Amino acid sequence: MQQLDLFYEGKAKKIYHTDDPDLIIIHFKDDASAFNGIKKARIKNKGIINNEISEIIFQELAKENISSHFIKRLNDRDMLAKKLDIIPLEIVVRNVISGSMAKRLNLKEGEVINNTIYELCLKNDKLGDPLLNRHHAVALHLATYEDLDKMMEETIKINQALKKLFDSVNITLVDFKIEFGKDKDGNIILADEISPDSCRLWDKTTKEILDKDRFRRDLGDVIQAYQQVLERLKNRK
């Protein structure tokens, strides 16, 4: 597999064409950002850890018959994946009250809720990734109702699988965000990454934060927290 030209660079990853038009190489960077790019830093080895965590998670999701763009991890920082037409929407899944939702609605962080909250956001940094409803998404020609139904069906399955996985290593899956894309056959499948960059993860016993909030909130020991998540996943029984 030959890596060709760079065609997209995001906050935490670079994406390259390959000599197969249906495949891409995703390179995980050490860059960290928060608050729509206002706060930035470089955290040594973050990309390496996120690449390996994402590999483990995508492999576990595949066991639950959840399709993703992941094919294989090529090396410490690079992942081979299917090339998708990304749907410019994020789905945020909230199992526990935290983060922006707690601030927005003046709720107590850490409050366990009886239902799961699903939020739809437009992927647009300039607009601050605003909340949408499904009717907005269809009116803006971002997706069809059928697309949204499929995305939600997969999201519910993903949440169930991830909660089970993290529960097995004594971690609470507080919330996470995911995105989807369409492959060359029009199938909607999971894209991007799943890592402490895109999830809130708390130790079940101590409530220690093991995710990107350590960077957002200047708590320190960011890479140690990410490494702890990786080691727990690798050593789970």
Search tags:
15 strands, globular, 30% helix, five-stranded antiparallel β-sheet, alpha+beta, 237 residues, 6 helices
Characterization of this structure:
- By secondary structure, the chain is an alpha+beta fold.
- The strands form 4 sheets. The protein has a 5-stranded antiparallel sheet, with helices on one face. A 5-stranded antiparallel sheet has the order 11-10-9-12-15.
- Helix content is 30%, strand content 33%.
- α1 (46-63) packs parallel to α6 (222-234).
- It contains 6 helices and 15 strands.
Question: What's the SSE blueprint?
Answer:
Blueprint: E1 3-9, E2 13-18, E3 23-28, E4 31-34, E5 39-42, H1 46-63, E6 70-73, E7 78-82, E8 85-86, E9 89-96, H2 99-105, E10 112-122, E11 131-132, H3 134-139, H4 145-167, E12 171-178, E13 180-182, E14 188-190, E15 199-203, H5 213-216, H6 222-234
Antiparallel strand pairs: 1-2, 2-3, 3-7, 4-5, 6-7, 8-13, 9-10, 9-12, 10-11, 12-15, 13-14
Quickly give the structural class. alpha+beta
Mean pLDDT, all residues? 96
- The outline comes out as globular
Uncertain stretches = none
**Tally of extended strands?**
15
Order of helices and strands: EEEEEHEEEEHEEHHEEEEHH
Largest sheet: 5 strands, antiparallel
Going across the major beta sheet, what is the strand order?
1-2-3-7-6
Radius of gyration: 17 Å
Number of helices: 6
Q: State the end-to-end distance.
A: 34 Å
Our estimate of the beta-strand percent is 25-35%
State the helicity in percent bands. Answer: 25-40%
